[in-house]
Amino acid sequence: MDIGEAESRTEPRSTMEAYRTSRRSPIGYLIIICILLVTILTLGVNNFILYKSYNSIQQQFHTAFKNVKSMTQNNQQLGIEKQKSKKENQLLKAKYETVLSQNQEIIKQIKEIKKQNEELKAKNKELIDDNIELQNSLKKAASVGVKPQKYTKFDGISSRSGLDRGRYIGEFVGTAYTPSKDECGNNKGITNSGKPIIPGISIAVDKKYWPFGTVFYIKGLGYAVAMDSGGAIKGKNRFDFAVFDKKFARNLGNKRWEVYLVKLGSGKVGNVKF
Which domain holds residue 7? Predict the structure, then answer.
């Protein structure tokens, strides 16, 4: 038998052996199946993870979108508020300029008022000086006439920046008297307070209402001090003005005078000075 025949006879055996070998290896199929299962599971897990990631990313995207939308709306609202604030600021600026202009006008008016006030002060000072001069003239006139044994000469009121008239207490019925013997029973000139009479200053009052030493301001007569009393002087709103000349007393007559209370006395007469 030659070599070719031998080879042709042995070839079917090797094929059968291979076939048998493949039939005898189910483990290979099992391995392949396991690999496929692992691959499928891995892909499934990966897909699940990707799906979860996708959902998370989608949710984050929606959240981010909502945030962006909210921020956009907020920005729009801020823009509206900004425009509104701008308009309000413009209105405030216009009002401020108006108020500033008014303040400047008020300042101008205040300066004018101050100027007028200074002028009024100067005029008032002149009137006060005139009033004092008139009072002093009246006091001098009241001291002209028949003089009693004792009397005090009033030195006059000095010039001042203002007159303290005190509190208005109403109208009094006023008369005038002289410290003569026929009117007072003597001509000693001593008032019921124990002090010498002061013409143009001393007045007789009702001691029940006004203690000696009380200072009054009588409009038209000036300052006066309660130093005397008399039987005919009764009531709260009554006084008798002391002068030395009977004709002067008669000319003053019986009339109503506006009276102010400067200071309530203590019952004693001290140094008379205004």
Answer: 1-100
